Amino acid sequence: MHRPLNQTMMYDERLLVPMRQELTRLGFAELRTAADVDQAIRDTPGTTLVVVNSVCGCSARNARPAVAMALEGEGPKPAQLTTVFAGQDVEATERARSYFTGYAPSSPSIALLKDGAIVHMIERRQIEGRAPQAIAADLRTALEQHCT
Fold it and tell me: Which of 56, 118, 119, 147 is catalytic?
């Protein structure tokens, strides 16, 4: 993986493997570079879910299971499932956040885009201190509204 010389990873990558796998095992594509993000989002028709993954204790620990719960069952799903890892894949995370117009950087967070434009955002403040089931219900509502 190419990383500019002035960019360092915040965490030992080996420690993040289980956190990454919580999403990749669900079919999420990891976007590790700005080019990956642009290819997945820019001028891409349909819906794209972007999860800004994070090491952050309770918030990320609740966000990842919430996403899994929201995608269970027969309800509407986004055409694309993608993820970036805040603090680790810095370039990719910054580029993904550039598509989240009107929202401050937040990790973890869950963004739903339609035709490359943000249509729903669940920020850290809406994740922090909430049960995964409540977060999942919010995400399901957004999927029903935008993915049908």
Answer: 56
What CA–CA distance (Å, rounded) separates 20 from 22? 5
pLDDT digits (tens, 9 = 90+) for 85-108: 999 999 999 999 999 999 999 999
- The answer to whether 16 touches 88, Cβ cutoff 8 Å, is yes
Instruction: State the catalytic residue, choosing from 10, 15, 17, 58.
Output: 58
Q: Is 147 among the catalytic positions?
A: no
Q: Are 85 and 117 in contact (CB under 8 A)?
A: no
Specify the pTM. 0.90
Residues 6+ apart with CB under 8 A from 63: 51, 53, 54, 108, 109, 110, 127, 132, 135
Q: How far apart are CA 36 and CA 29, in angstroms?
A: 10
How, if at all, do strands 29-30 and 80-85 pair?
parallel
Task: For residue 29, give both structure tokens.
Answer: 């594509």
Neighbouring C-beta atoms of residue 74, cutoff 10 Å: 5
Query: Under 8 Å CB-to-CB from 21, ≥6 apart: which residues?
Result: none
